[in-house]
Protein backbone atom coordinates (compact mmCIF):
# COMPACT_ATOMS: atom_id res chain seq x y z
CA UNK A 1 0.00 0.00 0.00
CA UNK A 2 1.49 3.33 -1.01
CA UNK A 3 1.97 6.13 1.50
CA UNK A 4 -0.88 8.50 0.36
CA UNK A 5 -3.37 5.64 0.58
CA UNK A 6 -2.15 4.71 4.06
CA UNK A 7 -2.57 8.31 5.22
CA UNK A 8 -6.08 8.52 3.74
CA UNK A 9 -7.07 5.17 5.30
CA UNK A 10 -5.88 6.27 8.73
CA UNK A 11 -7.63 9.63 8.38
CA UNK A 12 -10.91 7.93 7.47
CA UNK A 13 -10.50 5.55 10.42
CA UNK A 14 -9.90 8.47 12.84
CA UNK A 15 -12.93 10.30 11.42
CA UNK A 16 -15.05 7.16 11.83
CA UNK A 17 -13.96 6.83 15.49
CA UNK A 18 -14.69 10.53 16.10
CA UNK A 19 -18.14 10.17 14.50
CA UNK A 20 -18.88 7.04 16.52
CA UNK A 21 -17.82 8.80 19.72
CA UNK A 22 -19.90 11.90 18.93
CA UNK A 23 -23.02 9.85 18.16
CA UNK A 24 -22.58 7.83 21.33
CA UNK A 25 -22.29 11.03 23.39
CA UNK A 26 -25.37 12.55 21.77
CA UNK A 27 -27.57 9.45 21.91
CA UNK A 28 -26.64 8.13 25.34
CA UNK A 29 -24.46 10.39 27.50
CA UNK A 30 -25.96 13.84 26.84
CA UNK A 31 -29.41 12.75 25.66
CA UNK A 32 -31.22 13.89 28.81
CA UNK A 33 -29.34 17.19 28.85
CA UNK A 34 -30.19 17.88 25.21
CA UNK A 35 -33.84 16.96 25.76
CA UNK A 36 -34.03 19.29 28.74
CA UNK A 37 -32.31 22.20 26.99
CA UNK A 38 -34.39 25.36 26.70
CA UNK A 39 -33.02 25.73 23.15
CA UNK A 40 -34.43 22.37 22.03
CA UNK A 41 -37.52 23.47 20.13
CA UNK A 42 -38.59 19.93 19.34
CA UNK A 43 -38.74 19.07 23.04
CA UNK A 44 -40.60 22.30 23.68
CA UNK A 45 -43.19 21.56 20.98
CA UNK A 46 -43.53 17.96 22.15
CA UNK A 47 -44.17 19.17 25.69
CA UNK A 48 -47.38 20.84 24.48
CA UNK A 49 -48.82 17.36 23.91
CA UNK A 50 -48.06 16.11 27.41
CA UNK A 51 -50.33 16.43 30.40
CA UNK A 52 -47.69 17.42 32.90
CA UNK A 53 -47.61 15.46 36.15
CA UNK A 54 -48.76 16.95 39.45
CA UNK A 55 -46.74 18.13 42.43
CA UNK A 56 -48.26 16.63 45.56
CA UNK A 57 -48.31 17.56 49.23
CA UNK A 58 -49.83 14.96 51.51
CA UNK A 59 -51.21 13.22 48.42
CA UNK A 60 -53.09 16.32 47.22
CA UNK A 61 -52.03 18.28 44.12
CA UNK A 62 -50.62 21.75 44.67
CA UNK A 63 -49.60 22.06 40.98
CA UNK A 64 -51.45 20.34 38.11
CA UNK A 65 -52.33 20.71 34.43
CA UNK A 66 -55.70 21.71 33.00
CA UNK A 67 -56.79 21.65 29.31
CA UNK A 68 -56.78 24.96 27.46
CA UNK A 69 -58.21 24.11 24.04
CA UNK A 70 -55.44 26.04 22.26
CA UNK A 71 -52.16 24.98 20.64
CA UNK A 72 -50.50 24.59 24.03
CA UNK A 73 -53.22 22.12 25.09
CA UNK A 74 -52.51 22.53 28.80
CA UNK A 75 -51.94 25.26 31.36
CA UNK A 76 -50.45 24.92 34.81
CA UNK A 77 -52.59 25.63 37.88
CA UNK A 78 -51.38 26.09 41.46
CA UNK A 79 -53.40 25.44 44.62
CA UNK A 80 -52.64 27.87 47.46
CA UNK A 81 -50.05 29.38 45.15
CA UNK A 82 -48.30 31.77 47.55
CA UNK A 83 -48.14 29.15 50.30
CA UNK A 84 -46.22 26.69 48.13
CA UNK A 85 -44.47 28.98 45.63
CA UNK A 86 -41.01 28.48 47.25
CA UNK A 87 -41.41 24.76 46.46
CA UNK A 88 -43.21 24.70 43.14
CA UNK A 89 -41.80 27.80 41.50
CA UNK A 90 -43.73 28.75 38.36
CA UNK A 91 -44.18 27.14 34.94
CA UNK A 92 -44.87 28.66 31.55
CA UNK A 93 -44.53 26.81 28.21
CA UNK A 94 -43.08 29.87 26.58
CA UNK A 95 -41.21 31.62 29.41
CA UNK A 96 -39.55 28.91 31.43
CA UNK A 97 -39.86 27.44 34.87
CA UNK A 98 -38.40 27.58 38.39
CA UNK A 99 -38.58 25.58 41.62
CA UNK A 100 -39.59 21.92 41.47
CA UNK A 101 -41.18 22.63 38.08
CA UNK A 102 -37.62 23.08 36.84
CA UNK A 103 -35.63 20.73 39.09
CA UNK A 104 -37.98 17.78 38.45
CA UNK A 105 -38.94 18.77 34.90
CA UNK A 106 -37.94 15.52 33.19
CA UNK A 107 -40.15 13.48 35.50
CA UNK A 108 -43.06 15.92 35.40
CA UNK A 109 -42.83 16.15 31.60
CA UNK A 110 -42.46 12.38 31.16
CA UNK A 111 -39.14 12.62 29.29
CA UNK A 112 -36.78 10.99 31.81
CA UNK A 113 -34.93 7.76 31.12
CA UNK A 114 -37.06 5.91 33.68
CA UNK A 115 -40.13 6.64 31.55
CA UNK A 116 -38.58 5.44 28.26
CA UNK A 117 -40.47 2.15 28.01
CA UNK A 118 -43.68 3.74 29.30
CA UNK A 119 -43.50 6.25 26.43
CA UNK A 120 -43.04 3.42 23.90
CA UNK A 121 -45.99 1.43 25.29
CA UNK A 122 -48.22 4.50 25.35
CA UNK A 123 -47.35 5.22 21.72
CA UNK A 124 -48.15 1.64 20.70
CA UNK A 125 -51.43 1.61 22.67
CA UNK A 126 -52.46 5.09 21.55
CA UNK A 127 -52.48 6.42 25.11
CA UNK A 128 -52.12 10.18 25.45
CA UNK A 129 -48.71 11.05 26.93
CA UNK A 130 -48.61 12.02 30.59
CA UNK A 131 -45.84 13.01 32.96
CA UNK A 132 -45.23 11.49 36.36
CA UNK A 133 -46.26 13.15 39.61
CA UNK A 134 -43.94 14.24 42.40
CA UNK A 135 -44.79 13.52 46.04
CA UNK A 136 -43.01 16.01 48.29
CA UNK A 137 -41.93 15.55 51.90
CA UNK A 138 -43.87 18.64 52.99
CA UNK A 139 -46.37 18.30 55.83
CA UNK A 140 -49.31 20.57 54.88
CA UNK A 141 -50.18 21.44 58.49
CA UNK A 142 -46.59 22.39 59.30
CA UNK A 143 -46.20 24.39 56.08
CA UNK A 144 -49.41 26.29 56.84
CA UNK A 145 -48.37 26.97 60.44
CA UNK A 146 -45.01 28.37 59.33
CA UNK A 147 -46.49 30.46 56.54
CA UNK A 148 -49.32 31.89 58.62
CA UNK A 149 -46.99 32.79 61.49
CA UNK A 150 -44.87 34.84 59.08
CA UNK A 151 -47.62 36.40 56.98
CA UNK A 152 -49.94 37.36 59.83
CA UNK A 153 -47.16 39.54 61.26
CA UNK A 154 -45.98 40.86 57.90
CA UNK A 155 -42.52 39.36 58.38
CA UNK A 156 -39.94 39.25 55.62
CA UNK A 157 -37.86 36.11 55.97
CA UNK A 158 -38.04 32.34 55.86
CA UNK A 159 -38.80 29.18 57.84
CA UNK A 160 -37.39 25.69 57.34
CA UNK A 161 -38.46 22.62 59.32
CA UNK A 162 -36.64 19.28 59.01
CA UNK A 163 -37.25 15.81 60.41
CA UNK A 164 -33.82 15.17 62.02
CA UNK A 165 -33.73 11.38 61.62
CA UNK A 166 -34.50 11.39 57.88
CA UNK A 167 -33.68 14.85 56.50
CA UNK A 168 -37.23 15.22 55.18
CA UNK A 169 -38.17 18.87 54.80
CA UNK A 170 -41.53 19.36 56.53
CA UNK A 171 -41.87 23.07 55.77
CA UNK A 172 -40.10 25.49 53.43
CA UNK A 173 -41.51 29.01 53.59
CA UNK A 174 -40.26 32.28 52.13
CA UNK A 175 -42.07 35.59 52.65
CA UNK A 176 -43.20 37.71 50.99
CA UNK A 177 -44.24 35.14 48.43
CA UNK A 178 -46.09 35.31 45.10
CA UNK A 179 -48.91 33.56 43.26
CA UNK A 180 -47.43 31.40 40.46
CA UNK A 181 -50.86 31.24 38.78
CA UNK A 182 -50.32 34.73 37.35
CA UNK A 183 -47.19 33.48 35.58
CA UNK A 184 -48.73 30.23 34.29
CA UNK A 185 -50.16 31.88 31.19
CA UNK A 186 -49.03 30.76 27.73
CA UNK A 187 -49.52 34.32 26.45
CA UNK A 188 -46.11 36.04 26.37
CA UNK A 189 -47.54 39.54 26.80
CA UNK A 190 -49.65 38.51 29.77
CA UNK A 191 -46.67 36.72 31.31
CA UNK A 192 -44.47 39.82 31.24
CA UNK A 193 -47.35 42.00 32.37
CA UNK A 194 -47.44 39.89 35.55
CA UNK A 195 -43.70 39.17 35.81
CA UNK A 196 -42.29 42.69 35.63
CA UNK A 197 -44.04 44.00 38.78
CA UNK A 198 -42.82 40.94 40.69
CA UNK A 199 -39.29 41.37 39.39
CA UNK A 200 -39.23 45.10 40.21
CA UNK A 201 -40.90 44.76 43.61
CA UNK A 202 -38.39 45.99 46.26
CA UNK A 203 -39.66 43.24 48.59
CA UNK A 204 -38.31 40.63 46.12
CA UNK A 205 -41.17 38.09 46.26
CA UNK A 206 -39.54 35.89 43.58
CA UNK A 207 -36.53 35.32 45.84
CA UNK A 208 -36.48 32.06 47.79
CA UNK A 209 -35.05 33.29 51.09
CA UNK A 210 -35.07 29.80 52.60
CA UNK A 211 -32.33 28.48 50.31
CA UNK A 212 -31.00 31.31 48.13
CA UNK A 213 -30.93 35.05 47.53
CA UNK A 214 -28.86 37.41 49.66
CA UNK A 215 -27.66 35.21 52.51
CA UNK A 216 -28.04 36.36 56.10
CA UNK A 217 -25.47 36.97 58.82
CA UNK A 218 -26.38 34.20 61.28
CA UNK A 219 -25.49 36.19 64.38
CA UNK A 220 -25.56 34.24 67.63
CA UNK A 221 -27.05 31.03 66.23
CA UNK A 222 -23.54 30.51 64.81
CA UNK A 223 -22.29 30.14 68.38
CA UNK A 224 -23.64 26.58 68.27
CA UNK A 225 -20.87 25.76 65.81
CA UNK A 226 -18.25 27.37 68.05
CA UNK A 227 -19.47 25.28 70.99
CA UNK A 228 -19.59 22.13 68.84
CA UNK A 229 -16.03 22.67 67.56
CA UNK A 230 -14.65 23.39 71.04
CA UNK A 231 -16.28 20.36 72.69
CA UNK A 232 -15.54 17.99 69.81
CA UNK A 233 -11.85 19.02 69.69
CA UNK A 234 -11.41 18.89 73.46
CA UNK A 235 -10.85 22.64 73.84
CA UNK A 236 -13.73 23.08 76.29
CA UNK A 237 -16.69 21.43 77.96
CA UNK A 238 -20.10 22.85 78.70
CA UNK A 239 -18.90 23.88 82.16
CA UNK A 240 -15.55 25.40 81.14
CA UNK A 241 -15.33 28.94 82.48
CA UNK A 242 -14.07 32.09 80.78
CA UNK A 243 -13.21 35.62 81.89
CA UNK A 244 -16.31 37.77 82.11
CA UNK A 245 -15.50 41.41 81.33
CA UNK A 246 -18.08 43.90 80.06
CA UNK A 247 -15.80 44.92 77.19
CA UNK A 248 -13.12 43.19 75.13
CA UNK A 249 -10.57 45.05 72.99
CA UNK A 250 -9.96 42.91 69.92
CA UNK A 251 -6.32 41.88 69.31
CA UNK A 252 -4.21 44.29 67.24
CA UNK A 253 -7.23 46.58 66.98
CA UNK A 254 -8.93 49.49 68.67
CA UNK A 255 -12.34 47.88 68.13
CA UNK A 256 -14.21 46.94 71.29
CA UNK A 257 -16.58 43.98 71.55
CA UNK A 258 -19.49 44.07 73.97
CA UNK A 259 -22.25 41.72 74.97
CA UNK A 260 -25.73 42.61 73.75
CA UNK A 261 -26.61 43.63 77.31
CA UNK A 262 -23.63 46.04 77.35
CA UNK A 263 -22.73 44.48 80.71
CA UNK A 264 -20.99 41.33 81.88
CA UNK A 265 -22.46 37.93 81.03
CA UNK A 266 -24.33 37.54 84.30
CA UNK A 267 -22.74 38.17 87.71
CA UNK A 268 -19.28 36.99 88.64
CA UNK A 269 -15.78 37.25 87.26
CA UNK A 270 -16.16 33.97 85.34
CA UNK A 271 -18.91 32.49 83.19
CA UNK A 272 -19.37 28.95 81.83
CA UNK A 273 -19.73 28.08 78.15
CA UNK A 274 -23.27 26.74 78.62
CA UNK A 275 -24.35 29.89 80.44
CA UNK A 276 -22.69 32.13 77.84
CA UNK A 277 -24.59 30.42 75.03
CA UNK A 278 -27.89 30.40 76.97
CA UNK A 279 -27.57 34.14 77.62
CA UNK A 280 -26.12 34.65 74.10
CA UNK A 281 -23.08 36.56 75.31
CA UNK A 282 -20.45 37.61 72.79
CA UNK A 283 -17.25 38.05 74.79
CA UNK A 284 -16.88 34.53 76.29
CA UNK A 285 -17.57 32.97 72.88
CA UNK A 286 -14.96 35.22 71.25
CA UNK A 287 -12.45 34.31 73.98
CA UNK A 288 -13.11 30.62 73.34
CA UNK A 289 -12.78 30.96 69.56
CA UNK A 290 -9.51 32.87 69.84
CA UNK A 291 -8.09 30.09 72.06
CA UNK A 292 -8.68 27.52 69.31
CA UNK A 293 -7.08 26.93 65.92
CA UNK A 294 -8.13 29.65 63.53
CA UNK A 295 -9.73 27.19 61.12
CA UNK A 296 -11.48 25.05 63.77
CA UNK A 297 -14.88 26.73 63.57
CA UNK A 298 -14.94 27.16 59.76
CA UNK A 299 -14.01 23.46 59.46
CA UNK A 300 -16.87 22.50 61.77
CA UNK A 301 -19.22 24.73 59.76
CA UNK A 302 -18.05 23.05 56.55
CA UNK A 303 -18.70 19.62 58.00
CA UNK A 304 -22.28 20.69 58.76
CA UNK A 305 -22.72 21.90 55.16
CA UNK A 306 -21.30 25.43 54.88
CA UNK A 307 -19.38 26.09 51.64
CA UNK A 308 -20.83 22.91 50.08
CA UNK A 309 -23.07 22.40 47.07
CA UNK A 310 -26.46 21.07 48.19
CA UNK A 311 -29.49 20.14 46.09
CA UNK A 312 -32.83 19.22 47.66
CA UNK A 313 -33.31 18.88 44.52
CA UNK A 314 -33.66 22.68 44.32
CA UNK A 315 -30.20 24.19 44.15
CA UNK A 316 -29.18 25.73 47.47
CA UNK A 317 -26.83 28.70 47.59
CA UNK A 318 -23.80 27.58 49.66
CA UNK A 319 -23.54 29.20 53.08
CA UNK A 320 -20.27 31.01 53.75
CA UNK A 321 -17.79 30.53 56.59
CA UNK A 322 -14.30 31.61 55.50
CA UNK A 323 -11.18 31.11 57.61
CA UNK A 324 -10.53 34.41 59.45
CA UNK A 325 -7.36 36.31 58.57
CA UNK A 326 -6.41 37.26 62.16
CA UNK A 327 -7.56 36.99 65.78
CA UNK A 328 -9.81 40.04 65.56
CA UNK A 329 -11.64 38.39 62.67
CA UNK A 330 -11.80 35.12 64.63
CA UNK A 331 -13.62 36.98 67.40
CA UNK A 332 -16.09 38.67 65.05
CA UNK A 333 -16.71 35.53 63.01
CA UNK A 334 -17.40 33.50 66.15
CA UNK A 335 -20.54 35.53 66.81
CA UNK A 336 -21.83 35.11 63.24
CA UNK A 337 -20.70 38.47 61.89
CA UNK A 338 -18.01 39.68 59.46
CA UNK A 339 -18.07 37.47 56.32
CA UNK A 340 -20.14 34.61 57.78
CA UNK A 341 -23.47 34.16 55.99
CA UNK A 342 -26.05 31.42 55.99
CA UNK A 343 -29.31 30.20 54.55
CA UNK A 344 -32.11 29.21 56.94
CA UNK A 345 -31.88 25.68 55.49
CA UNK A 346 -28.26 25.47 56.60
CA UNK A 347 -29.06 26.51 60.17
CA UNK A 348 -31.90 23.99 60.25
CA UNK A 349 -29.33 21.36 59.21
CA UNK A 350 -27.12 22.40 62.15
CA UNK A 351 -29.94 21.94 64.66
CA UNK A 352 -31.08 18.73 62.97
CA UNK A 353 -27.56 17.28 63.15
CA UNK A 354 -27.26 18.11 66.85
CA UNK A 355 -30.72 16.61 67.46
CA UNK A 356 -29.79 13.46 65.53
CA UNK A 357 -26.80 12.58 67.69
CA UNK A 358 -24.22 14.26 65.45
CA UNK A 359 -25.44 12.78 62.16
CA UNK A 360 -26.60 15.30 59.56
CA UNK A 361 -29.02 13.78 57.08
CA UNK A 362 -29.19 15.10 53.53
CA UNK A 363 -32.16 17.49 53.36
CA UNK A 364 -34.72 16.23 50.86
CA UNK A 365 -37.84 17.85 49.43
CA UNK A 366 -39.03 14.99 47.18
CA UNK A 367 -40.14 11.63 48.57
CA UNK A 368 -41.08 9.73 45.41
CA UNK A 369 -42.03 9.92 41.74
CA UNK A 370 -45.36 8.31 40.80
CA UNK A 371 -46.34 7.23 37.27
CA UNK A 372 -49.75 8.08 35.73
CA UNK A 373 -50.89 4.50 36.49
CA UNK A 374 -49.94 5.07 40.17
CA UNK A 375 -46.76 2.99 40.26
CA UNK A 376 -43.85 4.27 42.33
CA UNK A 377 -41.22 5.01 39.71
CA UNK A 378 -38.50 6.44 41.94
CA UNK A 379 -37.98 6.76 45.66
CA UNK A 380 -35.63 9.00 47.60
CA UNK A 381 -34.69 7.17 50.80
CA UNK A 382 -32.94 8.94 53.70
CA UNK A 383 -29.29 9.60 52.98
CA UNK A 384 -26.53 10.54 55.38
CA UNK A 385 -24.86 13.87 54.61
CA UNK A 386 -22.10 14.01 57.23
CA UNK A 387 -21.01 13.17 60.79
CA UNK A 388 -19.41 16.39 62.01
CA UNK A 389 -19.56 15.58 65.75
CA UNK A 390 -19.82 12.58 68.04
CA UNK A 391 -23.01 11.69 69.89
CA UNK A 392 -21.32 12.80 73.12
CA UNK A 393 -20.66 16.24 71.68
CA UNK A 394 -24.16 16.43 70.18
CA UNK A 395 -25.69 15.61 73.56
CA UNK A 396 -23.57 18.27 75.23
CA UNK A 397 -24.58 20.97 72.73
CA UNK A 398 -28.22 19.85 72.94
CA UNK A 399 -28.01 20.30 76.72
CA UNK A 400 -26.63 23.81 76.22
CA UNK A 401 -29.50 24.62 73.84
CA UNK A 402 -32.05 23.22 76.28
CA UNK A 403 -30.61 25.45 79.00
CA UNK A 404 -31.31 28.42 76.72
CA UNK A 405 -35.00 27.51 76.96
CA UNK A 406 -35.21 26.45 80.62
CA UNK A 407 -32.94 29.04 82.24
CA UNK A 408 -35.00 31.95 83.64
CA UNK A 409 -32.59 34.31 81.90
CA UNK A 410 -32.19 32.22 78.76
CA UNK A 411 -32.96 34.14 75.60
CA UNK A 412 -34.79 31.18 74.01
CA UNK A 413 -37.16 30.65 76.94
CA UNK A 414 -40.17 31.79 74.85
CA UNK A 415 -39.74 28.63 72.77
CA UNK A 416 -40.79 26.52 75.74
CA UNK A 417 -43.70 24.12 75.20
CA UNK A 418 -45.47 22.77 78.32
CA UNK A 419 -44.64 19.12 78.90
CA UNK A 420 -42.01 19.03 76.13
CA UNK A 421 -38.23 19.32 76.39
CA UNK A 422 -37.23 21.99 73.85
CA UNK A 423 -33.75 23.04 72.71
CA UNK A 424 -33.30 26.48 71.21
CA UNK A 425 -30.92 29.28 70.31
CA UNK A 426 -31.67 32.86 69.32
CA UNK A 427 -29.57 35.19 67.21
CA UNK A 428 -29.49 38.89 66.43
CA UNK A 429 -27.21 39.82 63.54
CA UNK A 430 -25.99 43.35 62.86
CA UNK A 431 -26.02 44.58 59.26
CA UNK A 432 -23.82 47.68 59.33
CA UNK A 433 -24.95 51.24 58.71
CA UNK A 434 -26.75 53.09 55.94
CA UNK A 435 -25.44 56.03 53.88
CA UNK A 436 -26.29 58.42 56.72
CA UNK A 437 -24.44 56.43 59.32
CA UNK A 438 -27.56 55.01 60.97
CA UNK A 439 -27.60 51.38 62.08
CA UNK A 440 -29.49 49.13 59.69
CA UNK A 441 -32.22 46.96 61.23
CA UNK A 442 -31.11 43.67 62.75
CA UNK A 443 -31.68 40.22 61.29
CA UNK A 444 -33.47 38.05 63.86
CA UNK A 445 -32.95 34.28 64.18
CA UNK A 446 -34.21 31.28 66.05
CA UNK A 447 -33.16 27.67 65.62
CA UNK A 448 -33.96 24.66 67.74
CA UNK A 449 -35.57 21.25 67.97
CA UNK A 450 -38.06 19.21 70.00
CA UNK A 451 -38.50 17.01 71.88
CA UNK A 452 -34.90 16.84 73.13
CA UNK A 453 -35.30 13.21 74.19
CA UNK A 454 -36.94 12.08 70.91
CA UNK A 455 -36.47 14.78 68.23
CA UNK A 456 -39.30 15.04 65.70
CA UNK A 457 -38.50 18.41 64.20
CA UNK A 458 -35.63 20.88 63.85
CA UNK A 459 -36.47 24.39 62.77
CA UNK A 460 -34.75 27.57 61.64
CA UNK A 461 -36.50 30.93 61.41
CA UNK A 462 -35.06 34.17 60.06
CA UNK A 463 -36.82 37.54 60.14
CA UNK A 464 -35.30 40.50 58.32
CA UNK A 465 -35.37 44.21 59.18
CA UNK A 466 -36.00 43.80 62.88
CA UNK A 467 -39.50 42.48 62.24
CA UNK A 468 -40.48 45.31 59.91
CA UNK A 469 -42.43 48.54 60.35
CA UNK A 470 -45.08 46.92 62.55
CA UNK A 471 -42.35 46.39 65.15
CA UNK A 472 -40.60 49.68 64.37
CA UNK A 473 -37.77 47.63 62.82
CA UNK A 474 -36.52 46.94 66.34
CA UNK A 475 -38.04 43.58 67.27
CA UNK A 476 -36.03 41.07 69.27
CA UNK A 477 -34.89 37.56 68.48
CA UNK A 478 -36.02 36.39 71.92
CA UNK A 479 -39.66 36.91 70.92
CA UNK A 480 -40.40 37.30 67.19
CA UNK A 481 -38.60 34.37 65.46
CA UNK A 482 -38.80 32.34 68.69
CA UNK A 483 -42.61 32.57 68.62
CA UNK A 484 -42.66 31.45 64.99
CA UNK A 485 -40.35 28.53 65.72
CA UNK A 486 -42.50 27.48 68.65
CA UNK A 487 -45.65 27.45 66.48
CA UNK A 488 -43.92 25.29 63.87
CA UNK A 489 -42.67 22.81 66.45
CA UNK A 490 -46.12 22.65 68.04
CA UNK A 491 -47.65 21.92 64.64
CA UNK A 492 -45.40 18.88 64.26
CA UNK A 493 -45.87 17.63 67.81
CA UNK A 494 -49.65 17.97 67.68
CA UNK A 495 -49.95 15.40 64.89
TrEMBL record:
Cross-referenced Pfam families: PBP_dimer_2, Transpeptidase
Annotated SUPFAM superfamilies: beta-lactamase/transpeptidase-like
Entries under Gene3D superfamilies matching the protein: DD-peptidase/beta-lactamase superfamily, Penicillin-binding protein 2a (Domain 2)
Gene Ontology biological process terms in this record: cell wall organization
UniProt feature coiled coil, ranges: none
Stretches assigned to the Penicillin-binding protein transpeptidase domain: 157-477
One GO CC term on file: plasma membrane
Domain Penicillin binding protein A dimerisation: 52-134
MF GO annotations: penicillin binding; peptidoglycan L,D-transpeptidase activity
Protein name: Penicillin-binding protein
Organism of derivation: Leucobacter insecticola
